[in-house]
Design goal:
The structure holds two protein chains of two kinds. In chain A, 60% of the residues lie in helices and 3% in strands. By secondary structure, chain A is mainly α. The relative contact order of chain A is 0.19. By secondary structure, chain B is mainly alpha-helical. Chain B is 76% helix and 0% strand. The radius of gyration of chain B is 23 Å and the shape is globular. Classes of the chains: A mainly alpha, B mainly alpha. At the A-B interface, helix 1, helix 2, strand 2, helix 4 and helix 5 of A face helix 5, helix 9, helix 10, helix 12 and helix 20 of B.
Chain lengths: 151, 529
């Protein structure tokens, strides 16, 4: 099945995902109980959505991945650069044949970049996308009646 | 180089120029002149197309020719330099791409100004974006002049000057007539050509060594005259502690700067959703990573097959390592294969430069028209704004040509590193604070931008690249007070510090609702255009 709608392009496609589709983004509570949208201003809507359990869940899932991820790759990169510039003796130690520690570390940087990219894509697709899309529709539904102020 | 090489290379150049002008005309036929179309190409590119275009924007001639030359001459230190260019994409992917796509419309300033008093923030971010673009642009223009002269063997001043003028004129035509749509297709064509050329050469190098990478490395080490030291860090960035600290500063600027480059950020607006922006980055990480892995093979291949002495003899900075390697792989200087491969490499390098300068020109004309012009002069209709952007592209082209001609004989290799450093110290703090810090205020945003921009530029003026050493821009003068060539290690923390200081000293109470709006929009895409 293929959707013309561009919003639907990626939920079940892409690399790294085959038959198994992970734990899924279930159990995200709804953004709001009732819609009394007609007479609120857009700022109120965004505050309300921001306070909702559903949004907090999406935000914390995002942050729980990117904060440690960013710290990890920055530390690993800085450690690599500092080691290469200040401990060339260590880096020159041979591993196998012409390959030395420096070569392994450099290719390791490439490898970890690819791995983290893959992990982020998978995490976002399985843990965040569906909930974010629902929140998007809910929020737009709520802001619609308000004279397009937020659009 | 002989006449045969030149003729074939010129024919391929002309073919590429004809194709790109064809694209521009074809796109121009369907244009409506809306801002959406000019700045964002109608937002309907697929993630794969945009991924190739991002890779095309990012893989400059400096990487293709400069980095391979660096590896051919200094071995491992060239690889060390390359790693930062790739790792930087994790920052873009994790913290920037999706959120920027969700919150902004056309430029970086859209995202930062959304929560603030628009005018001062737009002017600040617009100024720093244009600064970054112009620095990057001049580096590419000067490179284009010397590169084409080098590849065609015409080192006369007039040939170089005309190359710079021709490159400038072409980029202005692409941008002002074709806008984002033509620029994107040119990037895609260029990325495919560059990757195809790189793959072909890499395969030929590996075939020459029967797929034995270990032998490739040991042959390279042997021929370099440095032995195993060639495969370990230290030949270029070792030495004094200043040189080492300088490299750490450069590495920091590369990793943090990519996420603040205006021409990269504007690419995320060409796809319909944040998810598509994410998938574009994944494509580009794959393409860029693969490309840099291949340049490593080509660099060591050039050291092993051509030899560092021959490379250095042709061009002291090593920029001709890949063309010389192509000549040898094709069967030598007098063979048909050598001629063809050499011409292909020259044409690919030329295509690379043209596409990169077009991308930067577009981004800076967007900053001028959408941020600076629109805030300095209140009532600008969207239609008028696009006209301003087209004119801005012409103006930027003229400035770039003039600076390119002025700087023709200067050593401008530091400019790329400087552009990254300014992006990391001025754009990145403002962007990250406004996306993630609830209490961030207008004064904080303005201070973050100027607090990173001004120190970065001042430190460079006081650095050895401008005065006080034989390689400086002004070797005769000496007002050098800052020892490092790249200011990143000082100016990036200063940018973040200034943003924090501006925020805590500001009397303005941050608007809760505006912050809620930014946060909800950035993570869900609600209200995204």
């Amino acid at each position: 099945m293929s959707y013309e709608d561009p919003w639907y392009d990626a939920l079940a496609s892409g690399w790294g995902e085959s038959a198994e589709s992970g734990p899924g983004p279930a159990a995200v509570p709804l953004a709001r109980a009732a819609d009394e949208a007609a007479d609120v201003d857009p700022g109120e809507v965004y505050l309300e959505v921001q306070r909702s359990a559903a949004f907090q869940e999406v935000r914390s899932r995002y942050r729980r991945f990117v904060v440690p991820g960013t710290v990890a790759f920055l530390v690993w990169y800085v450690a690599y650069v500092v080691a290469a510039t200040s401990a060339p003796g260590l880096m020159a130690r041979p591993v196998a044949g012409a390959v030395n520690v420096a070569m392994v570390a450099g290719l390791g940087q490439f490898l970890t970049t690819f791995l983290l990219t893959w992990a982020y894509a998978r995490h976002a697709r399985l843990r965040r996308d569906r909930a974010a899309l629902e929140l998007r529709w809910d929020t737009q539904e709520l802001t619609r009646g308000i004279g397009g102020g937020a659009r | 180089m002989t006449g045969q090489h030149q003729t074939l290379a010129l024919m391929l150049f002309s073919a590429f120029v004809a194709v790109t002008l064809g694209i521009t005309t074809w796109v121009g036929r369907h244009r409506h002149g809306s801002a959406e179309e000019f700045y964002a190409g109608g937002r309907l590119f697929s993630p794969m197309e945009n991924g190739f275009a991002i890779a095309g924007d990012y893989m400059s001639a400096a990487s293709f020719l400069g980095v391979t030359g660096l590896i051919a001459l200094f071995g491992y230190d060239g690889l060390l330099y390359v790693v930062g260019f790739l790792v930087a994409w994790l920052l873009v992917l994790f913290l920037v791409a999706e959120l920027v796509r969700n919150c902004g419309r056309f430029t970086l300033a859209d995202v930062v100004a959304a929560r603030m008093r628009e005018r001062p923030v737009r002017i600040a971010v617009g100024t720093s974006s244009v600064t970054v673009s112009v620095l990057y642009l001049v580096a590419q223009m000067v490179g284009a002049g010397s590169l084409v002269a080098l590849l065609l063997g015409r080192t006369s001043q007039a040939a170089q000057a005309w190359t710079v003028i021709a490159v400038g004129a072409l980029m202005v035509i692409y941008v002002s007539f074709g806008g984002m749509r033509a620029t994107t297709w040119i990037q895609i064509v260029k990325a495919v050509l560059l990757l195809a050329g790189t793959v072909a050469l890499t395969v030929l190098v590996l075939v020459r060594f029967h797929g034995d990478v270990d032998r490739l490395l040991s042959t390279a080490a042997e021929r370099s005259g440095h032995g195993t030291a060639f495969l370990a860090p230290g030949l270029k960035y070792g030495g004094s502690w200043t040189a080492r600290l300088d490299f750490i500063s450069l590495g920091l600027a590369l990793v943090l700067g990519t996420a603040g480059l205006p021409h990269i950020l504007s690419r995320f607006y060409t796809v319909p959703t944040a998810r598509a922006a994410r998938r574009s980055v994944i494509w580009s990480v794959g393409l860029i990573g693969g490309f840099y892995l291949m340049t490593i093979v080509l660099g060591f291949g050039a050291a092993a097959i051509v030899g560092p002495d021959a490379v250095r003899g042709s061009n002291a900075a090593g920029n001709t390592a890949v063309p010389l390697l192509a000549l040898d792989l094709g069967g030598g200087a007098d063979s048909t294969g050598g001629t063809v491969l050499f011409a292909v490499v020259a044409a690919v390098a030329f295509a690379t430069i043209l596409a990169v300068v077009a991308g930067i020109t577009l981004a800076s004309s967007a900053s001028v028209a959408h941020d600076l012009y629109a805030s300095l002069r209140r009532r600008a209709a969207p239609r008028g704004e696009v006209t301003v952007a087209r004119l801005a592209a012409v103006g930027i082209g003229v400035v770039a040509i003039a600076l390119g001609l002025l700087a023709r004989d200067l050593n401008v290799a530091f400019l790329v590193g400087l552009a990254f450093a300014v992006a990391a110290s001025a754009n990145l703090p403002a962007l990250l604070y406004s996306l993630f810090w609830r209490g961030f205020t207008t004064r904080g945003a303005v201070w973050a931008v100027y607090g990173g921009l001004v120190p970065a530029l001042v430190l460079v003026v006081l650095s050895p690249v401008v005065s006080g050493s034989p390689d400086s821009l002004f070797p005769g003068l000496d007002f050098q007070y800052f020892p490092l060539q790249n200011p990143g290690i000082v100016s990036v923390p200063l940018g973040f510090l200034a943003g924090w200081l501006g925020t805590v000293t500001s009397p303005e109470i941050p608007d809760e609702a505006k912050h809620a709006e930014t946060e909800v929009r950035s993570l869900t895409g609600a209200g995204a255009v």
